[in-house]
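Researcher: Good morning. I'm working through a list of sequences from a screen, and I'd like to move beyond sequence-only analysis. For each chain I'm collecting a predicted structure so we can compare shapes side by side. This is the next one on the list. No need for commentary yet; just the structure.
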Amino acid sequence: MDFASIKRLLVFLGSRKVTLLSLVIILLLLTAYVGLPLTVREHLPFNSKNKPSHPDDVRSRRGRFDDQPTTKLDPKFDDQHDQTASDTDTYSSSSDAWLQSEETGNAAVADDEHDEFMTQQAEIQRQRKRTLRETCNRYNITSRIKHDHYFVDDKYDLVYCYIPKVASTNWKLVFQKLAGVVGEHDNVSQFKINRDLKKELVKLTDTHQMESSLTFMFARNPFSRILSVYRNKLEPNTTFERAHGWQEDLGRRIIKTYRDKDERHEKYDLTFSEFVHYISDRSNKGRPGWQNIHWNEYYKWCSPCDVKYDVIGKLETLHDDAKYIFKLAKIRDIEFEDPSGSSPTFSYHNDTLNRYFEDVPMGSIYDLYNRYQFDFELFGYDLPKSAEAKLNAG
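Model: Good morning. Structure tokens for this chain:
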């Protein structure tokens, strides 16, 4: 009630016979009400804004995002924050909101207090969010949200930011099943999931959809993702059926960039070291292949410092994290599975990582880490041992 309302009430009372004592009591009550803090007034039972929420509704217990202007970047990081402004808008959450989320975890876990798995996963999420928040604050990281990087499911109130080469095909299949585009027992190829059926998925249109949804994203060790791209699309002996186009276009361009004419062979033979050199060499910025959805930085793609994700998943713990999301969203009628015809490279295995990075020069490892440093720190990843040993030796 504002002062204009109080004035109208007094005028109304003045037109009627009211005892002096009654008037004094009314004025005292009004004064006490106005003096209450806004947060207290909003929670009084007669306040129309104070609508009860269902105790089992995940959305009612998530806490709201705070729309605040994004913080200006530290100039020394400006070159690492080049963003495409198309189809974007800013959506930031305050440090206080992060802290609250970090301390309370997902309140939906209260439904499964007896479930040891859910308790363990909630603690893992608290740790991941704490690492994320501390890194965001340390480097003053911010970015613009790109709507077309998010898939939405209205039935289960899910919002997922997909990152290519981080189990994105698995999750597209989940969303296609939830939407009824794919049946639970349909045998759907990886190509169809990523091309034909992808068009059937709903994209984010308004960041406020996130307020009432379970939001999540997945990351993986940045170096294992780079290796996965190479082994899947650019390695000479790859089994990926559509690798030829990648090799003849980007692969041969990289070879031409770093080899003299007499060192180029008719048979395609791009090495992992050459690929790493190309995407880590900042002088190639702006050239074809420097930026690509399969190796763009996570913090630029999913804006983890500007979106308060409910779940931060990792490829290394994919099935546990997926199970956790399914339980939170109460998804029971489908299963999380690998798509048909997938071509895994197992690049996240430590032995594989170390073997490939042994042949990469120290300078290229340093430049590659410099490009993906934020991703390493935001999601708590370490360098492969062989790469770390070279940097320490240098």
